[in-house]
Amino acid sequence: MKTVATKPIEGQKPGTSGLRKQTRVFMEPGYLENFVQSIFDAIGGLQGKTLTLGGDGRYFNKRAIQIILKMAAANGAARALVGQNGILSTPAASAVIRARKTDGGLILSASHNPAGEDGDFGLKYNIPAGGPAPEAVTEAIYRHSREIREYHILEAADLDLSTCREVQQGPMTVEIIDPVTIYADLMRKLFDFDAIRALFAGGFSMRFDAMHAVTGPYARAILEGELGAPESTVINAAPLPDFGGGHPDPNPVYAKPLFDLMMGPDAPDFGAASDGDGDRNMILGRGAYVTPSDSLAVLAANARLAPGYAAGLKGIARSMPTSRAADRVAAKLGIPAFETPTGWKFFGNLLDAGKATLCGEESAGTGSDHVREKDGLWAVLLWLNIIARRGESVQEILNAHWADYGRDYYSRHDYEGVDKAAAEALVADLRARLTELPGQTFAGLTVAAADDFSYNDPVDGSTSSGQGLRLFFAENARAVLRLSGTGTVGATLRVYLERFEDDPGKLALDAQDALAPVTAAVEEITGLKSRLGRDGPDVRT
Ligand code: VG1
Ligand code: CO
Predict the structure, then answer these.
(1) Average pLDDT over residues 234-244
(2) Binding-site residues, ligand 1, Cβ < 6 A
(3) Residue of minimum CA distance from atom 15 in ligand 1
(4) Is the pLDDT of residue 282 over 90?
(5) C-alpha 277 – ligand 2 centre gap (Å)
(6) Cα 425–chain centre separation
């Protein structure tokens, strides 16, 4: 066992979801070691503890796992549960932490960020409840990273992680586990697998794009292996260290081949995709794109059709920028609706306290109290369960939903990799004008209220402020602006647009057309195109 002297490294501050940096930064001598030791120190050490460990398989995953195992052993951990070949999707890691009651875990992923030596890498700590560390813990980790003087590591050979078994790394036992088993067991309990099996047996066709990321093995085992979907259902199923050079973010832009297929003449009945670490999902029907905000609302309205939710929902939580469609369902069901800041860590307390059953974010994240992460394949299975039980197409289900509740037209416009100073100044200037905007009219819309979102956690009483600028318009519309907290270069400005419509004759408009007045109002208020030097957004979800 070796104690290595080190110095604090700048910028090891976790963002929306753990620490994300360019892979080359993470590979600099001592960078990973400093951050890992800071995590161990911030949680009161590892003496006698058991950790769950796995990642999305991206470049540097294998190397980093070996380093973390040696550090965990040298810090006194008793046991580590590691996914075979170092693989665990984010929701599966959460499931393992909970099922095996480990003292939390480390997840290696930069999620939807591109991978490879020139891409990004990430690491986050999840608490024993299974969810991402709350702000108090991430702040403690950051504090330790600024005071660190030494780290502990074992001088030992790397372990072979390719077969499931128990081995020793020094004094620590390493249990190499199948990455799918615990997760698949959980899915079987939640959903009507017989109904879904019958659906596929009846010729229902589906395409699942794993985007060369971590969900491939899970989707293969569950959809094709267990539910009987034909073998060609899961595409891009082999996880690759560079995700095949792609950008594994399941949205109409980065999952364009699947999107185009679903909008074309040869579309199967159902299409889905997930992201780098398997916690996001995109849902498509033949000729139909389901926005993540609508998906949360539809899942909530129909959840009782799945055995795991037959008793009903306790509440629904959504991140603030997510559309209000889910709130309408909560109101009709007579259950509470919660609005949290962006990032799954804010749902943990509500789920632990039994206040919410379903949660969702507009960024293609949906999940429930079965784990403490968003869960891409879970959302796909719940949709399949609902389709099987309702016997309707995705478009029919959407139409029925909008007829009942009205439609929250929704889109997010991302301006990626823009100049950081320009983006920060734009947000700061708008923040300074928030009090003067109400009553003024822009592009035909009148600002009714404007604020900077602040959240008071109803469970632990903590406050998180500065979580996004909200512009409410009198015409039942809303815009939100915030800067991304997951990028590694420059800045990404996210502009979230929504408008409610319940005129039965106006429920089938093109979303961008329906939102054009809101887009125009935001442009008139902020002048963002010229300030950022862009003609338009890089991504519209
Ligand atoms: C984005 C999304 C947010 C999500 C986060 C992590 O954060 O907006 O909703 O929770 O990514 O998702 P930001 O700060 O870039 O807007 V994942 O799938 O990258 O772990
Ligand atoms: Co993700």
Answers:
(1) 94
(2) 16-17, 111-112, 275, 279-280, 319, 342-344, 361, 363, 365, 484-486, 494
(3) 484
(4) yes
(5) 5
(6) 27
DSSP 60-98: THHHHHHHHHHHHHHTT-SEEEEEEEEE--HHHHHHHHH
The rounded distance, in Å, linking the Cα atoms of 273 and 19 is 25
- Indicate if 111 belongs to the active site: yes
Protein residue closest via CA to atom 4 of ligand 1: 343
Query: Residue 364 C-alpha to ligand 1 middle, in angstroms?
Result: 9
Residues 6 or more apart whose CB falls under 8 angstroms from that of 515 comprise 409, 410, 411, 497, 498, 499
Helix (H, G, I), strand (E, B) or coil at 310: coil
Ligand 1, atom 8, lies closest to the CA of 363
CA distance 116 to 353: 39
Assign 487 a pLDDT band (cuts: 50, 70, 90): confident
Q: How far apart are CA 311 and CA 303, in angstroms?
A: 9
Cα separation, 126 vs 134, whole angstroms: 9
- pLDDT range class, residue 498, cuts 50, 70, 90: very high
Chain-centre distance for alpha carbon 259: 20
Q: Quick check: pTM over 0.90?
A: yes
pLDDT tens digit sequence for 12-51:
999 989 999 999 999 999 999 999 999 999 999 999 999 9
Which tens digits make up the pLDDT trace of 440-462?
Answer: 999 999 999 999 999 999 999 99
